[in-house]
Design a protein that fits this description.
CATH architecture of the largest domain: Orthogonal Bundle
CATH class of the largest domain: Mainly Alpha
Strand content: 5-15%
Number of helices: 26
CATH superfamily of the largest domain: Hypothetical protein, domain 2
Largest sheet: 5 strands, antiparallel
Shape: globular
Radius of gyration: 23 Å
Structural class: alpha+beta
Oligomer: single chain
Number of strands: 9
Length: 528
Amino acid sequence: MSDSRESGRRHSPRLGAMPLTYAAVADAEADPIPNAEHCYRAVQSRDRRFDGVFYTGVKTTGIYCRPSCSAVTPLRKNVSFYVTAAAAQRAGFRACRRCRPDLTPGSPQWDVRADVAGRAMRMIADGVVEREGVTGLAARAGYTPRHLNRLLIDQLGAGPLSLARAQRSHTARILIETTDMGLADVAFAAGFSSVRQFNATVLEVYGATPSQLRHTRRPNQRTLSPGLITVSLPVRQPFDADGLLDFLGRRAVSGIEVCDGSTYARSLRLPTGPGTAWLTPHADRVECTLRLADLRDLAAAVERCRRLLDLDADPIAIDGQLSHDPVLAPHVARRPGVRVPGHVDGFEVAIRAIVGQQISVAGARTITSRLVREYGEPLPGAQPPPAGVPLGEPLPGTGAITRLFPTPHALAAADPAALPMPRSRAGAVVGVAAAVATGEVVLDRSADRADVRAALLRLPGIGPWTADYIALRGLGDPDVFLPTDLGVRQGMSRLGLAVDDRVAERWRPWRSYALLHVWSAGTKESEK
């Protein structure tokens, strides 16, 4: 994006009068291009809240930085701002070696926005371009490749190839710094089509060759055994890690999940092969150790772990909005930085939601464990935690990670009468599995949320609660409310609130996060 576009943009009086907030920098519903003056204020104050929301290109040095970079603040006339790292690279800037802007949390707006740009960003982060090309990305988004390219350049400052190139560069850097793989193997694992392209791209993006990056990696940067990678996933503060682990731990399904209260681990079904992730939250990051059958799945595994833990949320904006409600304010103060537990697989969320209809968390966990045992595929070999990864005694009802969650095809072929649940619920499980297997329902974050909800409601046994729960955890919708949920009703009663949509309206656009506070006010047994 050029300076002429920044200076010529018409700013609304509302934005000009706002304090320095994410909404002031970029209006996610109207215009994602950064507000230059607010961006510069964030750079002057080195505000970490905006890392990943925008990037600063410095014309005098030819580098781009995160807003919190500790380098001397450049003059306003020497900087321009970009909504994606790919846009900064497309404008000719390379990544800063000091602040490493490629390691920032993702922009919150990709989860808030439900338009094609937001969905495309989520698909690119998951590696769709590497696997299916721009044609496949466009088909998933419902556009022609030419139209999608034009739309993304207009909205994000870079087209799908440039955005995917930035993703490949980031993946390559992780492999260079955390493994002892040969650099040629790194190139192909990261998605590059040739070693020559890999070398040229890394040099252009980072100002160093792959060999130089490997030789200058930090002294404390540890490498793991073949097939294992450790990645630090950055988070925005505050971060309610304890709440996340408690939620996930009490729902851990034997065979596919383990949680000991400080580390959560689970199996992953990835595009090229199976994997296992161990996630240990710390004060400013989540340590993620991955065991992958194929290193080409690294980008997809990292993206799915990030969305599982809702790491791209903007807790300052969310808590600020919910704190305006006098009823929720004390709960927000006690649990700042609440995250909505997401998931690594939308289909798994759907099945678990159906199984959990009108039964307790413990009961749903038991039934789901049986489905995993009878229909899930075994992992190749045992999956103990790698050396150095803390994982103590798992919570009751869980054990070793030995299996993958069943595929849609496996459950679609099941006899409803053989499933350990009432016949109508078993029919719903088989029906959803068949709809996903045939493509009638798409349960990943590439799909339009309204279209997914409508398709789900057409299936027998799927009501509003189930469809909305899937949107909450499977599709990452930040604005879901479940008025018929038992836990919500109990929580609202304890808060002295009526259970109706008018009360929840004041929590928009963060009703999903308000829901977590309402659930915590009710009984633990009633949480879904």
